[in-house]
Each structure stands twice: as C-alpha cells, then as structure tokens.
C-alpha cells in the first residue's frame, strides 16, 4: 500500500532564487486547476508540475517548512494571488435608510394630509365672510390667526421628519451592531499553518497562496488547496456539491480540498492554492453579487445562480446537516459578505421564535383595533360637523365655503391618522430590536457570543439543558492522577524507576506518536503558573504524564516526524479510539492505540506484566481489571484511558488496512490511566440556580457511566435519594426502539422525564434525545431545549435544539456553525447568564407593552370622546406625534435596556402558551387608564373652572392655543412620564424604583423627556398648540402626574384573582388550540402577583396574631383557675391580695387592652411589610 503522505524537501522554497521575482504559475493556472476533481486533477498536476512537490517549487514554498513568513513575500503573494477576504457588500447609506423609513403607510398618509393642510391654509375665501361658513370657521377678527394656520401642517411635516430620522438612525445603529458582531466573529477565527518550520495560528484573512495549512477533524477549510499529507481524511462537500456523502481524500485519488467544506474525520496538510474571491466559495459569492467586482451582466448571473442554488437546495434536504447549503456562505466567516445574511434569512434555520409569534399576532390585533378607532374618529368628526353646520345652524351650502369645508375635512383626517399612528404599535419591533441588540452586546461580556438574535429570547423560555461534561461542567484541564501499569495500581504518578524500561519506552513512544502533533504542552505564560495545554486536553494529560515520567515526548516526535507516520486511524464517535501505524526498517509494522478503557480492553488479548513481558489476557482477567481498577477510578470521577499496541510481523504480509475490525484486535495492553478533570467551582451553584428556575439539567457525555455519575453527583445534577435515571447509550437505544429497531416516541416519553445522565452516548443518541424531548407531548407545555456541543458530529443535535451552544475554545468550526450561541469560555455558568438575559428580554418587551397599551387606551379614548363631544381632539396632531415619540422610541429605549437581576431565576419559564400580557399586566393597564382618563376628562370639562381660565372647547378652525388645552396636554404627558416608573414592574411589585439608578439610559431618557416637555410648553407656541403656563399651573400638572405613582400602589394592592373578568392577550399562534377552561387554569397557575403574595402573607400574619392572642387568653384563664384552686388551702391574707388583681371586671379590661395592643402592632407590621417589595 502506498503511504498516504508526502515527504517534501526544504529545497522547494529556495529553488527559486531572488533573481526570479515572479512566481512560475499564474492565478489563472491555479483557478483552472482547482476546477478539476479526482483523476482529472491528478493528471493536470502530473502534466504541468510533475507532482505536488513541483507545484510547491513553482509557488516558492516548502511542503515541510512552509513559507518563511517575511512581510515582503506575504505582501507580494497578496498582490499576485489576492487576499483571503471578500469585499463585503456596502452597507446602506443613511439616506437609503431614510427613504425606507418614509415607505411606512401611516407616515405617507400623514404626509399627504399635512401637505393638503399646508396648501389650504394659505387659501382664504376672497369675497365671503368666514362666519357665513359656520361658527367653527371663525370670524374676521381671527383672520390674523388664520395667517398662521400653515404652522400646524408644517409642524406635522417636521414631526414626520423627526420620526423618520429617528427610525433611520435606529436602523443604522442596528446594522452597525450586526457588522460589529460579524467583525468580532471574524477576528476570533484562526487557522493552523506552518511558517518557517513552526506550527502557528494566524487569522484566516492572513492566509496566502503557498501557505502549508494543517487540517484536522472539525475544521472548516478557509481556502482551496491540494493535499500533501493525509491521515484517514474525510470531507463533507455538501455545501458546494449538494451531496451528503463524505468524500475520502488521498494524494493518489482525490487531493483537491475546497474552501467552505468540513473536515469530518482525520487530519493532514494542504498547500493553499486559492484564496478569497478566487477560491471556489469566493467564485460563488461573486456570482451571487456579494462582491462589487462583477461585470455588467451581474444581474443575469445572479438570477441564473439563484435558480441553480434552488435546485441544489432540493438535494440538500437529503443532507445530514440541514443548512449546509448556506454553509459555504455563513460558515466561511472571514470571507463574510452581508449578502449572506439575506441569504440566511431566505433559508430560515428554525420555526418562528416564541416571542416573535406572540408579538406578530398581538401587533396585528392592536393594529386592527387602531384602524377601527381611527376610522370611527373621522366618521364621528365629519358627522358632527355636518349636523352642526347644516342642521343645527341651518346654513346653506355655499360654493365660496368649499375650501373651508375641505380644511375641516383635512383637519379631521389628520386627527384620525394621528389616532392611528398612536394606536399602531410601530414601536414594538423597535423595542424588540433594541432589547435584543442591547442584550447581545451585554451577553458578549458574559462570554456568550450570540449568532442568531432569536436564540437570546428563546433561551429565556428554556425548560431543559442537555450539557456536555468535559470543559462545560468541568475545567477541561486534565491531568493523569491514577495509573495501572506493570500489574500495579498507583494512586499517583509513579517514579520512572518503578516501571520496567521496556514498558516505559513503549508507553512514551505510544504517547508521542499517537497524540495529534498539534497537541503540546507549552511553558507557563507567567513564572510559577501552570503549563499551558494546547490542543486536545485528554492528549495533553497523556503528554503531561510523559513529562512527569521524566521523558520528553518531543524527542520521539523529532525522531518520527508526522510525515513518517504510515497510517492514522483518527478518533471518532464510532471507534472511541485513535490508532497510529509506524513502518519499521525490516518491513514490519507497529500500531499504537489509545481509547476508552472498557472498550479497548475488549480488543486486548495480552497485557504487559511487571517483568516487561506480555502475558495472555483472559476474559476473567479483564473483568477483574474492570472491577478493581477501572470502576475504582471511575467512581472518583476519573476518565479512564487504555494504552495498547500491536505488532504486525513482515512475515505475515501486508495487512488489509481497510479492515478496521481485524486491525484493531489482538492488542497488547500497556497501561490504563485515570485522568482527572475537576468540576468547575462555580458549576454546582449554577445548576442549583437552573433547578430553582424550573430548568432541568441533563448530562450527555461519552464517558464511562461511573465517571459520569460521580461528576453528576458533584455538580448537583444527581442528589442523594433522587429517583432519576443514569443510563448508557446502549441501554437508552434498547429502551426507545421496538422489535423492528424503530424509535418510538411513546418509549422515549417513558424515559426522558426522569433521565439525568446519559453516558457512553454517541452524537446520534444526543440528537435522538433532543428530538424526543422537543416532540414530546407528555407534559402540558412543549419543552424548550438547549444543547451544548463541541464536536463535528454534534451538529445535528445543535441544529435540532431550540438553542444550540457551541464551545468557543474546544469546539470545532462545524459545531460553531451549527450553533446559535458560542460560549467563549466553555463554562456552564455562562449558560445560566444566557437564561437571565433571555428572560430579561421577555420581561422588557412586556414592560414596554404595559406602558404602550396604557397610553394607547388613554390617547385613543380621549381622541374619540373629544371628537364626539367637542368636534375636536383635545390632543392635537403634533402633540400626539410627540406622545407617540415618547411612547415608542424613547420608551422602547428606556424599558428595553433594563439590566437583568437574579430574581429572574426565582420563577419557572413562561412557556410557549404564556401570554405576553398577563392578567396582572391587564390590571395595571386598565387601572392606570382609569386614573388618567378620569383626570383628563375632569380637566377637559371642568378644568377652566378649576384654574379660572378661558375654556378651550369648541374653538374655531384657526383659534390660537389655549391655557386650558395646554394644561390637558401637559398633564397627560407628565402622567405618561411618571407611569414609565410603574411600567418597570409587571408582576405587581411595589418598589418601582428598585434598581432605577442601575439603568442610566432610563434615567437620562426620563430627564431628557421632562426637559423637552418644558421647552415644548414654553416655546412650542402655535406649532405645538401650547401657551406658557404659570408656576402654579406647572405644580398642579406635576402633582397630578405624580399621582400615577400613588395610584400605582393602590392598583398593586388589588389581588388579580379578584378581577376574574380580566382577559390575557398575546398568546401566540397556538392559543386557539387551547381549550378555554385549560387556558384559564393556565393563567391562574402561572400568574405572578405580588398583591396576592402580600395578601397571603397578611393572612398568615393575622392568623398568627389571633393564635397568639388566644394562647395568651388561655394562659391567663388557666393561671386564674389554678390560683383560685390553690388559694383555697391558703390563708385569707393571700386571698385578699390576689382577689383584687384577678377581679373579673378588671380581667376583662386586661383582655381588651391586650387584644387592642396586639391588633395595633400587627396592623403596623402589615402596613410596613406592604411598603417594601416582597421577593418571590
């Protein structure tokens, strides 16, 4: 068998001297080469270059030592062959975003109405007295005011401009944040290459043609290349070809490696031959128009390519990874173009998120109600005007008054549109975007790199977490602490003198060559620190064992470089082992193996003894070793690894290396080691928080069941006395499959509720478990599952989960691509922070809704009532636009940026059927609406008498602003500002100021809104229909606004269960599927109401007090009875002394005083408790 490797020379890089500045092959030559596959590619290489070594010589590089790495050489290669980046699509300009914001239908209607109003304001009937057109038109004395009638139309246009600019700025900020997120991902993306003979990691964007790149299991190839040395290398090329079968890569059959494809097995080295827009992925990007370098026929190419991609999509549905079609686009992070994001949206990863579904339905409902109210307002205004003008006043239709009538119609139309603007929750998507973007930014500091925004809020509803063990629950810093070698079990690493030399030599050589050469132990960064572990941590532990035995593994690697390895069977989830074959000088072979102890021991038929010789290893010996050594190690939470070898004599001929079952048998056991991976100190507390928050944590690991059980107990997943399942993957599969071997959901439903640990599991076991939990209907609400994964084969489970967490440190590129969130510290406690942020997003949206709907109800009711009674809206169009700005943009900023608190983890997940607007929130909305409407209508109809000012009702068309309506407007705005504090609490909590200073955005917005409101009242004039108010009037407005806070305390005191008529809203798409009685029960069970808690606490308090009083009365009565009985035997002096004290009438007085004092004390305590916030 030909060796699947290439031993190059150092002369490749130096073959071209400095006298030959140009490379001996062109960019076009390499592009034509990379378009070929299989035998055609090999033929082209042989015809044009001789072999891969010849191509290296042409590119002035060495297949062994790589490029020298000189800056001038790197720069020349970038200039000649391009950089490994694709120019991203230019972001939308601010003007483009402004234009998009102007496309809003309601704003367009408002603009048209404002332009008509503006045009008509300059027209006045030439020969007709205005009073002939009706009282509301105004008389000659108001003509001067009529000249300023244009101000309202101009002010509306100006307000529209403000709204558009704010919307565009928010969109611009959002896009900037997304680009920042992508930039963060790009900066963290690195790849391993060889330069100047040293293995190093560089940014993917710095890779150039001629680099020698090391590829390994789990990598996403960042450039095109040709294989120069491979070990059992298999590639998933479905992202480019649509074929899901893994392609085996060898030098003599198919050496072509393509960017955007995944390494599913094995390792190797490749010569980089194309980067950036010249790579296969880059060419596709260019055709899609992601790059600006396309020619005039770019649109035609784009359309054609889209058709081709659609056809490929059909093939991709058969693929193991659902979204690998866009994998080449999204996974190639450094070759990122924003067009990819649009592609990603076109191929949604999952169904609509919980929050999105609820918000969409709620927004539609509110929008329809707003449209109905708006139309009703316009109809009422027009009807009142017609009745008043042509019936009550009895005026005839005059041609000269048509312009005045049109002005009235436009005014009514503007009022109707502004009601619609206020009613339609256009601030809702803004609040969601701000809340998610803010959370994503903050989550980065908590080591959560969010790749899909919807995952943030979905995590808040998580009910189950299926977590890996290594690195997530444990520290992923492994060390060998137990060894079984030469027939003895050592509880610590033995001295080298205690191990026979032959065994020690075999052990060190096996560790050196049978661990990935990219894995190594580096000196500590700081003096006195721990050595740095680079690469696979299990292999690092074995390399550390070599150093502890006073032997340097690097000497072995120097003697046997990676190019000399004959064959490597890399680790995968099926083998559960790794084997490396060496060819000896005499033609024989030696294979070293390492893997899971109980699995590899079954393949051993010999074991090395204390004499250094091998003896027969019988099944009975194996059972004894497993029981006495492996189970002992596993019970202490150690990972057990078996190290073995096998010799293939030359006399037996060439083995069939493809027959793995035969090759990996008849091994000789060298040693068994126990590797400790300590539990992270913060994990037990994090798991307790999850359990308290109603989230079930399950461990899914490939480790031994005893090791898994020990670690689960240390973490708190398994507690003493718990009746939970801890099973292996094999037993799990037996339980969930029927006689035909098919998986049945009913069988899974019998297992997963009690399952806490799944050991010796494969990635498909994890996928089956996740799918089974998600599809289960055994519980009332659908489970929301989060999964952690680090391996390539974890991709299906990460994709299937509602939220997939990939390990940022130990995770492969494939796992990261399949995930929604990347844990940059691989720590379980970071998942708990993600839960907090997810729940905070949900609560932030609910807070905003509570505030917005209160304003909606009040503003729309005032507008309609005012239209019915006064033929005008008390809140003018511009004023309502200002209120809309407060309600939408500012409120979304203020309430959507509330930081999370630990209290969020003290309740169960809301669930998919939980309404966005709970009954407690509905109580708050209606309660505050009643207060505000009562005050507004009081001010509207008797305000002129209260403040002794002129009445502002029934004013003519162009009447000047009045103090009356200014007070109404000012009070209304101040009530909304102070009600924002009430909106911060959605479960009836009393202390609405708690943590307010921890949110500087909220404080600054409240302060800024107050300042702008003062400026509007005093400087707004005709534009805002305001006149300056006196200090006394301002104090009254502030007093009435502050009343919202006091009223809020009263509303919070009413238990929600008393208000059975209240209904919830915002259930999402599945509400109609829930029976009415179940829905009511669901609402009652899940409702969080602090008023109810206070009531219960008060009831408990009263019960305790009454029991105490009764006990005291009973004691007094008992003492009195005992005294009189005992005193019968005493003298008359004792009788006289105590007769006065226990005289019946005085005892009654004592009782009454005692009861009164207790009642007073407990009333005082109850009032005190009611004034502080009660935690759940």
UniProtKB/TrEMBL annotation:
Topology in membrane: Multi-pass membrane protein
Coiled coil, from the record: none
Enzyme Commission no: 7.2.2.10
Keyword set, alphabetical order: ATP-binding, Calcium, Calcium transport, Calmodulin-binding, Cell membrane, Ion transport, Magnesium, Membrane, Metal-binding, Nucleotide-binding, Phosphoprotein, Translocase, Transmembrane, Transmembrane helix, Transport
Main localization (coarse): membrane
Location of the protein in the cell: Cell membrane; Membrane
Positions of the Cation-transporting P-type ATPase N-terminal domain: 48-122
GO MF term list: ATP binding; ATP hydrolysis activity; calmodulin binding; metal ion binding; P-type calcium transporter activity; PDZ domain binding
Transmembrane spans: 97-120, 150-169, 371-392, 412-438, 925-943, 963-981, 1001-1021, 1033-1054, 1149-1169
Any one cellular-component term (Gene Ontology): plasma membrane
Region feature Disordered, mapped onto this chain: 1-20, 293-324
Catalytic activity: Ca(2+)(in) + ATP + H2O = Ca(2+)(out) + ADP + phosphate + H(+)
Entries under SUPFAM superfamilies matching the protein: Calcium ATPase, transduction domain A (SSF81653), Calcium ATPase, transmembrane domain M (SSF81665), HAD-like (SSF56784), Metal cation-transporting ATPase, ATP-binding domain N (SSF81660)
Basic and acidic residues bias locations: 298-316
GO BP annotations, alphabetical order: regulation of cytosolic calcium ion concentration
Family, per entry: Belongs to the cation transport ATPase (P-type) (TC 3.A.3) family. Type IIB subfamily.
Purpose: Catalyzes the hydrolysis of ATP coupled with the transport of calcium.
Name of protein: Calcium-transporting ATPase
Lineage: Eukaryota, Metazoa, Chordata, Craniata, Vertebrata
């Amino acid at each position: 068998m030909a060796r699947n490797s290439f031993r190059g020379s150092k002369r490749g890089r130096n073959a071209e001297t400095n006298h030959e500045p140009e490379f001996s092959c062109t960019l076009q030559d390499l592009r034509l080469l990379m378009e070929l596959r299989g035998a055609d590619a090999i033929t082209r290489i042989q015809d044009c270059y001789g072999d891969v070594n010849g191509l290296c010589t042409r590119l002035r590089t060495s297949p062994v030592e790589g490029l020298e790495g000189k800056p001038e050489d790197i720069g020349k290669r970038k200039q000649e062959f391009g950089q490994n980046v694709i120019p991203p699509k230019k972001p939308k300009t601010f003007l483009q975003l402004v234009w998009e914001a102007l496309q809003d239908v309601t704003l367009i209607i408002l603009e048209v109405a404002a332009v008509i109003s503006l045009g008509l304001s300059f027209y006045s009937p030439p020969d007709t007295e205005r009073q002939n057109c009706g009282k509301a038109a105004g008389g000659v004395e108001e003509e001067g005011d009529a000249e300023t009638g244009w101000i309202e139309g101009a002010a509306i246009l100006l307000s529209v401009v403000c709204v558009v600019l704010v919307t565009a700025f928010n969109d611009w900020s959002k896009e900037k944040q997304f680009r920042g997120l992508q930039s963060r991902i790009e900066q963290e993306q690195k790849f391993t290459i060889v330069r100047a003979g040293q293995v190093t990691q560089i940014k993917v964007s710095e890779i150039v043609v001629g680099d020698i790149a090391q590829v390994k299991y789990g990598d996403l190839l960042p450039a095109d290349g040709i294989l120069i040395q491979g070990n059992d290398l298999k590639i998933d090329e479905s992202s480019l070809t649509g074929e899901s079968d893994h392609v085996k890569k060898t030098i003599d059959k198919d050496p072509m490696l393509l960017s955007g494809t995944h390494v599913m097995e094995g390792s190797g080295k490749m010569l980089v031959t194309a980067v950036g827009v010249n790579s296969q992925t880059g060419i596709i990007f260019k055709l899609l128009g992601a790059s600006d370098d396309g020619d005039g026929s770019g649109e035609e190419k784009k359309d054609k390519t889209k058709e081709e991609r659609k056809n490929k999509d059909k093939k991709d549905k058969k693929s193991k990874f659902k979204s690998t079609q866009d994998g080449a686009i999204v996974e190639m992070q450094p070759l990122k173009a924003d067009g990819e994001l649009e592609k990603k949206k076109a191929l949604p990863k999952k169904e609509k998120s919980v929050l999105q579904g609820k918000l969409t339905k709620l927004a539609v409902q509110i929008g329809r109600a707003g449209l109905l109210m708006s139309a009703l307002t316009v109809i009422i205004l027009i009807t009142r005007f017609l009745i008043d003008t042509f019936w009550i006043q009895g005026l005839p239709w005059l041609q000269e008054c048509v312009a005045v009538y049109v002005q009235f119609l436009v005014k009514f139309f503007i009022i109707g549109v502004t009601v619609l603007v206020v009613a339609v929750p256009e601030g809702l998507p803004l609040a969601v975007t701000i809340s998610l973007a803010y959370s994503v930014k903050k989550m980065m500091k908590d080591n959560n790199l969010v790749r899909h925004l919807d995952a943030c809020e979905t995590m808040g509803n998580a009910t189950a977490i299926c977590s890996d063990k290594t690195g997530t629950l444990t520290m992923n810093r492994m060390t060998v602490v137990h060894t079984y070698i030469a027939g003895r079990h050592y509880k610590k690493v033995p001295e080298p003198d205690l191990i026979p030399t032959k065994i020690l030599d075999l052990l060190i050589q096996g560790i050196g060559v049978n661990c990935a050469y990219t894995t190594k132990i580096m000196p500590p960064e700081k003096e006195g620190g721990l050595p740095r572990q680079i690469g696979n941590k299990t292999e690092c532990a074995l390399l550390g064992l070599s150093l502890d035995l006073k032997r340097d593994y690097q000497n072995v690697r120097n003697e046997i470089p990676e190019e000399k390895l004959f064959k490597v069977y890399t680790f995968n989830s099926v083998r559960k082992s790794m084997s490396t074959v060496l060819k000896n000088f005499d033609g024989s072979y030696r294979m070293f193996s390492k893997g899971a102890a109980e699995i590899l021991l079954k393949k051993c038929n010999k074991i090395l003894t204390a004499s250094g010789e091998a003896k027969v290893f019988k099944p009975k010996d194996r059972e004894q070793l497993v029981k006495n050594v492996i189970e002992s190690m596993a019970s202490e939470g150690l990972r057990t690894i078996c190290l073995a070898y096998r010799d293939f004599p030359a006399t037996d001929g060439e083995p069939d290396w493809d027959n793995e079952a035969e090759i990996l048998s008849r091994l000789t056991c060298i040693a068994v080691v126990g590797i400790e991976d300590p539990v992270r100190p913060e994990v037990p507390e994090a798991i307790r928080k999850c359990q308290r928050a109603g989230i079930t944590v399950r461990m899914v690991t490939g480790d031994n069941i005893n090791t898994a059980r020990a670690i689960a107990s240390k973490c708190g997943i398994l507690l003493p006395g718990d009746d939970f399942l801890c099973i292996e993957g094999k037993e799990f599969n037996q339980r969930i499959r029927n006689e035909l071997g098919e998986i049945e959901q009913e069988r899974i439903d019998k297992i997963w509720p009690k399952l806490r640990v799944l050991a010796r599991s494969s990635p498909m076991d994890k996928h089956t478990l996740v799918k089974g939990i998600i599809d289960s209907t055994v519980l009332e609400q659908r489970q929301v599952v989060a999964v952690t994964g680090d391996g390539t084969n974890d991709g299906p489970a990460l994709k299937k989960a509602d939220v997939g967490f990939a390990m940022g440190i130990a995770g492969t590129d494939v796992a990261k691509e399949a995930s929604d969130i990347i844990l940059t510290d691989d720590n379980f406690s970071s998942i708990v922070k993600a839960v907090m942020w997810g729940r905070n997003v949900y609560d932030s949206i609910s807070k905003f809704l509570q505030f917005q709907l209160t304003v909606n109800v009040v503003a729309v009711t005032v507008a309609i009532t005012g239209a019915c009674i006064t033929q005008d809206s008390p809140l003018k169009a511009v004023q309502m636009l200002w209120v809309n700005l407060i309600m939408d943009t500012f409120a979304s900023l203020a309430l959507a940026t509330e930081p999370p608190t630990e209290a969020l983890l003290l309740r169960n997940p809301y669930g998919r059927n939980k309404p966005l607007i709970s009954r407690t929130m509905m109580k708050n909305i209606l309660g505050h609406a009643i207060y505000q409407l009562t005050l507004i209508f009081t001010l509207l109809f008797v305000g002129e008498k209260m403040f002794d000012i002129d009445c502002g009702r029934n004013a003519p068309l162009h009447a000047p602003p009045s103090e009356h309506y200014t007070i109404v407007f000012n009070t209304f705005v101040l009530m909304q500002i102070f009600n924002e504090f009430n909106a911060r609490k959605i479960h009836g909590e009393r202390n609405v100021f708690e943590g307010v200073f921890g949110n500087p955005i909220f404080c600054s917005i409240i302060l800024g809104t107050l300042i702008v409101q003062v400026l509007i009242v005093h400087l707004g004039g005709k534009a805002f229909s305001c006149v300056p108010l006196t200090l006394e009037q301002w104090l009254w407005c502030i007093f009435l606004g502050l009343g919202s806070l006091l009223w809020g305390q009263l509303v919070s005191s009413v238990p929600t269960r008393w208000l059975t008529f209240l209904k919830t809203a915002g259930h999402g798409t599945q509400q109609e599927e829930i029976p009415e009685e179940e829905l009511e029960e669901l609402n009652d069970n899940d409702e969080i109401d602090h008023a109810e808690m206070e009531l219960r606490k008060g009831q408990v308090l009263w019960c305790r007090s009454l029991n105490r009083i009764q006990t005291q009365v009973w004691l007094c009565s008992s003492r009195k009875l005992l005294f009189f009985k005992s005193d019968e035997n005493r003298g008359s002096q004792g009788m006289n002394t105590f007769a006065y004290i226990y005289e019946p009438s005085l005892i009654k007085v004592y009782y009454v005083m005692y009861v009164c004092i207790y009642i007073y004390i407990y009333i005082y305590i109850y009032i005190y408790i009611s004034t502080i916030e009660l935690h759940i």
